[in-house]
Design brief:
507 residues, two-stranded antiparallel ribbon, mainly alpha, two-stranded antiparallel sheet, 4 strands, 20 helices
Length: 507
């Protein structure tokens, strides 16, 4: 079952391939839906407590959006220059070689995305169960079970249809934007009523503490992490309709919109709460709703639940494409590079993402792991953007539909280096564990990818397991369709059509 075709039009066979079903609206929904999670509803106090004043906190929110915009412009150039699904992984592999790409893939598949998915799913279950347990924290087992049910449901949806998955993303992204729009509108009504005491310059820049360089760095880190997810559209480049046009368009629409929403949502909060009230609240949007929405205060916890439900869907959709791309390059088992013969969805990759998340939920200390995830994630951003500069030097004449000014990646990297160095200084244990997690992939790379002359018994076992997996999931290797090689002149043409065992590992 090396490849496959299915019946399409009455006159012939239609090749099995990933379909270009993500238009501009769905592309924007993927970016916005992955950036805006539960954080802006629950606890935007991280920036405020380190900034020391309302005014500086709002400035940092705007600057956080600016830094995300700089990074997304760099990713727009990389995305249209190397139009392959897989995002950071594909770019790092193309520019720095197989080992660097594998280490990024290893850390993402092993801990980064499963942990993020687990945290979002647990947040979803906690807010859904809140009305059932109004006076206490929901029971541990009830929260875990509901999280798992939600994850399994969305895995089934993503396995059944790309169109269903993108429609869910569109609907839930619209829902969370409407909820935030409600907060912003109520905030403006408060301002028109004269309730903007905390926003006047004399009060906004009334520091209750003098922030040090360390405090500013921590505030920027909090703001930057709130914008994480701006690069997720790059994971599904091959399923975009006209990616060289819609990828940059979606980025240019989404990042300014999210920055606007984040900034004005925080302004709205300060029309109802003092800084001290905001810092003492565990769920800022819920407190805001209780103060100003009266009978309709239930809208806020429901909005958090809907927001996280859409976030789970977005993470599943994009992380499965990362597994798919890694398997296609020979860095993961070849079964993960196969898609369903009828639905054209990467079911094995989706199942791996789902199972890894379930394991993290059951055996991992999820909220401790997320600290390591933040460091690894931020490290990957910087390495990828360094790759843009390296690619300019290595291949100056390659076709670039978008070419950003070099000051953009250099400015981003200056912020990145400042925050990374401070993180290493202030949290050496967290950063050290994050680096160890990445480096555990080195022996795995040499045993699984670099070592090609494996014993025949090992190869036979791998082939039989792959065949069994194909029969179980009813999947085959993609044939033709939207392979990135059709759009990237520098890439070999047959890589996506061959089993991993039949092609050289990239070194």
């Amino acid at each position: 079952m090396a490849g496959g075709e299915r019946r399409g039009a009455p006159g012939g066979l239609e090749p099995v391939a990933l379909k270009k079903e993500i238009g501009l609206v769905s592309a924007c929904a993927i970016i916005i839906g992955n950036i805006i999670g539960s954080g802006i509803f629950i606890s935007p106090k991280g920036v405020l407590e380190h900034a020391g004043s309302v005014g500086l906190a709002l400035i940092i929110w705007v600057l956080g959006g600016g830094v995300a915009a700089l990074g997304s412009l760099c990713y727009a150039e990389l995305g249209v220059t190397i139009p392959k699904s897989g995002g950071d992984y594909s770019y790092v592999t193309e520019i720095f070689g197989g080992l660097a790409g594998f280490l990024l893939l290893w850390s993402a598949v092993l801990i980064m995305y499963p942990t993020s998915l687990a945290v979002i799913a647990l947040t979803f279950s906690n807010y859904v169960l809140q009305p059932v347990f109004p006076n206490c924290i929901p029971p541990y087992n009830a929260s875990r079970i509901l999280s798992m049910v939600c994850l399994l449901l969305l895995t089934w949806v993503n396995s059944s249809s790309v169109r269903w998955a993108t429609r869910i993303q569109d609907i839930f992204t619209a829902g969370k934007l409407l909820a935030l729009a409600l907060i912003i509108i109520v905030g403006f009504i408060q301002i028109f009523k004269g309730n903007y005491k905390e926003l006047t310059p004399s009060n906004a820049f009334n520091f209750w503490m003098t922030p040090s360089v360390g405090h500013l760095a921590l505030a920027f880190l909090q703001g930057s992490f709130a914008f994480s997810g701006w690069n997720f559209l790059n994971y599904v480049t091959e399923e975009l309709v006209d990616p060289r046009r819609n990828l940059p368009r979606a980025i240019f629409i989404s990042i300014p919109l999210v920055t606007f929403v984040y900034t004005f949502t925080n302004i709205a909060y300060f029309t109802a709460m003092s800084p001290q009230e905001l810092l003492s609240s565990n769920a800022v949007a819920v407190t805001f709703g209780e103060k100003l929405l009266g009978y309709f205060s239930w809208v806020m916890p429901v909005s958090v639940a809907l927001s996280t439900f859409g976030g789970i869907n977005g993470y599943l959709f994009t992380s499965s494409r990362l597994c798919f791309s890694g398997a296609r390059e020979g860095h993961l088992p070849s079964l993960l590079a196969m898609i369903h013969v009828k639905h054209c969805t990467p079911i094995p990759a989706l199942l791996v993402c789902c199972m890894a998340t379930l394991v993290i939920m059951l055996v991992g200390d999820t909220y401790t792991l997320i600290n390591y995830v933040s460091f690894i994630n931020y490290l990957c951003y910087g390495v990828t953007i360094i790759g843009l500069i390296v690619l300019r030097c290595k291949k100056p004449k390659i076709f670039r539909p978008i070419k950003v000014n070099l000051l953009i990646p250099i400015t981003y990297l200056a912020f990145w280096a400042f925050l990374l160095i401070f993180s290493l200084y202030s949290e050496p244990i967290v950063c050290g564990v994050g680096l160890i997690i990445i480096l555990t992939g080195v022996p795995v790379f040499f045993l699984g990818v670099y070592w090609r002359n494996k014993p025949k018994s090992v190869n036979r076992l791998i082939e039989s397991m792959t065949c069994w997996g194909q029969k179980l999931c009813f999947v085959v290797y993609p044939q033709g369709g939207v392979a990135a090689e059709e759009e990237a002149p520098s890439a070999p043409s047959a890589r996506s059509r061959q089993p991993a065992s039949d092609r050289d590992a990239r070194k």
